[in-house]
Amino acid sequence: MKSFLVFPAGSRARWLVVAAWFVGIFLVFSFNVPGKFADAENNESISYLPGDAEATRALEAQKELTGSEEAPIVIVYRRDGGLTASDRARVASDLKKLNAEVEGVSSPFRTVEVSKDGSAVIVSSSITATGEADDLLEPVDHAREIASGSFNGLDVALTGPAGYGADSVKVFESINGTLFVAAFGLVFVLLILIYRSPFLLWLPLIAVGFAEIGARAVGLGLTELGVTVNGQSSSILSVLVLGAGTDYALLLISRYREELRHRESRQDSMRVALSSAGPAIVASGLTVIAALLCLALAELNSTASMGPIGAVGIFMAMLSMLTLLPAMLVIAPRFVFWPRVPKEGTGGTDAEHGMWRRLGDRIAKRPRPVWVTAIAVLAVMCLGLTQYDSGLTSANGFVEDVEAVKGEQLIAESFPDGSNVPTEIVVGDPAKSKAVIDAVRQAPGVASIRQVDGNQDGVLLNAILAEEPYSPAAFDLIPGIRDAAHQAGGETTLVGGGTAVEHDMRQANQRDVKVIVPIVLVVVFLILIGLLRAVAAPVLLIGTVVLSFLAALGVGFVFSDMVFGFPGVDPSLPLYVFVFLVALGIDYNIFLMARVREETLAHGTREGMLRGLAVTGGVITSAGIVLAGTFSVLAVLPLVFLAEMGFTVAFGVLLDTFLVRSILVPALVLDIGPKVWWPSNVLMKSGKTGPASTGG
Prior knowledge:
Elements: H1 2-5, H2 13-30, H3 33-39, H4 54-66, E1 70-78, H5 85-101, E2 107-114, E3 120-128, H6 133-147, E4 149-151, E5 154-159, H7 160-195, H8 202-224, H9 231-260, H10 266-293, H11 301-322, H12 324-331, H13 355-365, H14 367-382, H15 403-414, E6 423-427, H16 433-441, E7 446-455, E8 458-465, H17 472-475, H18 478-489, E9 494-496, H19 498-532, H20 536-563, H21 573-603, H22 605-632, H23 640-672, H24 681-686
Antiparallel strand pairs: 1-3, 1-5, 2-3, 4-5, 6-8, 6-9, 7-8
């Protein structure tokens, strides 16, 4: 591995590596690969579900029955106290304009329902789903230009599946550019503060930028293989590449600077840096990649797709920081570090002096009270887990108000709550349609049911729920409706629609948490065993990271509810936060313990721990701040789920950086002593070679 890692530092190889990267990026832009990757995003909620989910099978059956997949457009007109004659005239005028001017709809706009109290009327049409965003946005936007607004007390809003779909597409389309600019700008500022050099920061920025572009190029290839990519996974990809890539750059540059103080040759210094820091970066990257690939086992397509997409991002970040960055650093003169240019013969004191060495010495005096106190603090944070509320849904998942939500609220004031998004029931045997109607009408929570289409191959029914369609209460009604429909209509009767999609997504997510969490822990544990050649230390590291994850999640729940005032937590949030915090949290422990192991072989466990903390404390803390900063950018995006995840992961990274890695892990290692390396006899013996090497 070391022979491979030092290749970019070669006198000729460095130029070849830089040339290869620049040619590759030129070709990527020549074929507009980033744009094609954005066009390949699929943000429809039904695409998140596995093929065997009943909501998915119901959609396929509905498409076979009607010949296409329809997305209803629902326009609601409402006035408190009842619609006036002028209001009804406006509805009639709008209908003429809508049918004359709006293109791309598959059926005429028509009045479908008037409320019993006369305060509201619903106008509806539909769009044939093609998978192309413009085919949805153009008719919805045109219809809103004609009808939507407030007119002297008359409120008009466009909603329904087409309205929600259009609003979601607009939000996701606005995310990528905003996110990358914000995250890149934040990393730029942080690197200025960390390096305090106007020249050095450009090299890691170029490398991480190339990694981002390369990740999207490979990601486009994954979409051709059937991997579902949406705005959510695309956003997280950018954060992972920027955050992890900058972390790897900080670690490599720190070790390179350290070696420049020992020798004159930049080439030799980079070879030593790559030989020592390179394996830790590879182990760290492979740990995150392995954890992310575990997501591919998920039933939920949105979660499963995040696995390979995120893994590609981490791989490209690791590849760029181990090839392009070292090649550019060796080509650049020492002056690139100005004004703090490392000079030969000034090294050798980092492990024995400095803030982090002083912190380690203080912890070493009484390590047990330190780690007990740290665990108590984390345990208090875990109490926030009691605030978990899975009330975040498609309807309330936008940070800002969108028209589709407003329209649904208007409908709920005058009609049964579920009128906006009916539950669709496909009856395969037309002879059983009446029995299904009678059975479903008696099911709890069903306000009404009617037939909307049918032929000799089947019948399509729409059931209106008494509950708001995108609410936990409505999701809980789906099993009862399905039981009633299946008993009356047999196996060919399927229940789908927006509410059923959300229900099936939540069921799949519950299964994914139970399956993926233990697999990720086992995979990370095995990688740590291979890296540290020990069992006790990996158990300790896994335990601290899991405790840190639970503490961060607890704090995230509390802030989501009491500080940000969000309506709830997305059920998939704990799984995403777990994978990111466990994988990325282990990163810093790998950086720390790989160096501690190296120092232990020469100085024993106690001194090795103190020296390892001293030489890695600054760079790992800087890396944690950068990674937390990039994830925190998610908190400014217009989706509640991404905002919650950004805050929780950012807080968890900082918690792991400043408390777990800097205080808890060193205290535990110092208290346990050489036994932490069990069953490695060589390392356990190395801890007993002298007074300075005895266990804490």
